[in-house]
Amino acid sequence: MMNIRPDKTCGFTLLELLVALTVFSIMSLMTYTGLTTVLNSYSHAKEKTEQLSELQAAFTLITRDIEQAIARPVRNSYGDSEEPMVNDGEAIGTLLEFTRTGRPNPAALPRSNLQRIAYTLDDNKLMRLSWAVLDRAPGSEPLESLLLTKVKSASIRFLDKNMDWQEDWPTKTKQEQESGVIKVPRAVELTIELEAWGEIKRLFRVPGNEYYGKPNGV
Fold first, then answer.
1. What superfamily would CATH give domain 58-212?
2. Cα(159)–Cα(168) distance, rounded to whole angstroms?
3. Residues with Cβ < 8 Å from 12, sequence gap 6 or more?
4. Domain limits of the chain?
């Protein structure tokens, strides 16, 4: 007569399976949440780093432009005379327009080292416009460069020779008008509000060169 022994192979009960699945689900959720947090933190840090680099590059360029400003008036594309530095230029949304020296010429071409620069605020974007010629012909188009995005507002004011702040430029005195002496301000202050950084103020020194008299035709 054969003896039939009961199978003693161990296995999971239904309750044990449910507990194991629950623990696994919790651990998976914790791992996913932790990984998501790390990825979000990395993405946020990367975005902030890019925004900071963009801001630093913009201020570096603006500093280089303004610190090479000179008192050289020009004619716009309509044939009208414009002062060396103004805050209501021809371009829409102009914050500041001026003449600067130091235009790069790596090929040593026979041309002027002066150029006309404008900064505009359009559709929450701070743009830099540059003209290759000072006295522009009708239809002259500037080279446009994007400096900053997500700009909520921007404003300019000027420090005059008496160390007083002016909202508009130029503010020529009667003596300056009679003598033909054209000046640029001592400094330009830019106040800009960005979505990422809030309000930022920067002061840019202007050399203060004077142009005595006006060039032919201006």
1. GSPII I/J protein-like (3.10.610.10)
2. 10
3. 20
4. 58-212
Quote the Cα angle for 134-84-149, to 5°.
80
Model confidence, pTM: 0.70
**CA nearest 125: which of 194, 200, 199?**
194
> Whole-angstrom Cα distance, residue 14 to residue 206?
81
Cα distance between residue 20 and residue 166, in whole Å: 74
Place of tokens 């130091």: 102
Find tokens 């010629």 and name the residue: 133
**Per-residue pLDDT tens over the stretch 1-43:** 555 555 555 666 777 777 777 777 788 777 777 777 766 676 6
Evaluate whether 182 touches 214 at the Cβ level (below 8 Å).
yes
Would you give the distance in Å from CA 123 to the centre of its chain?
Answer: 13
The helix/strand/coil state of 215 is: coil
